[in-house]
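Quarterly update from the structural biology core.
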Amino acid sequence: MRFVAIALVTLLLLPIPPTPAQTWQKVQERQYLRIGVKDNTPPLGWRDQQGNWQGLEIDIARELALELLGDRNAVQFVPLSNRERISALPQLDMVIAQMTVTPNRQRLVDFSLPYYTDSTIVIARRSLTRTDLKGILVLKGSTAIAVLQERFPQVPTIGIDSYQQGITALQQNSNFGLAGDLTILSPWLQQNPDYSQLGGRLSFHSLAIALPKGLDSAELRQRVRQVINKWRSNGWLAQRHRAWGLP
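Predicted structure, tokenized:
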């Protein structure tokens, strides 16, 4: 009994570890959001020649800052590559960077309600048919790879690091196609009439805001989900889709 009593006293004397601050509490204290975005994927997110941020995802980030903090400018944009989007999330409040909701990603991060439904297409020279294809360029690690292997089993996929690299390779190789999101490739097609969409849409996928898992971020996640739900109901998201010419 004496041993138990000593042990209890010892436990009572140990310092109690501080409760980690909630993410929403940190946001309120700093009075701005830290959001990972893309800086090279119009019309979703990019910087123009003057360095100004543009795009649907930039609008979403700014409007979230207005809804949550009362100031559209209360946001710090952190440009991310595709490979950095999940690994950088612990240092950010959220990522709004062309993130497709997938089961694998849902094990690592939480997602808001979708803010857009995109689709995968393949583009190529107008004179090209499916049987002419010698290769399909696609972003490394893209969810489109599995779809391409199913729809074009005889055509090898060729990994690229960016859409710009893919477009350059497409123009240099007349028998190649380029797979990617309709939102990204459609504006380029409009400016390059020698190329067209090869066949129909291959798949559909939802884009959503990625947020950290864990109890610390629970309140921020809930607030973001409520805002997205509001925008889906009042038509704000649909209006921004039209404003950026999204299909």
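The first helix runs from residue 2 to 13.
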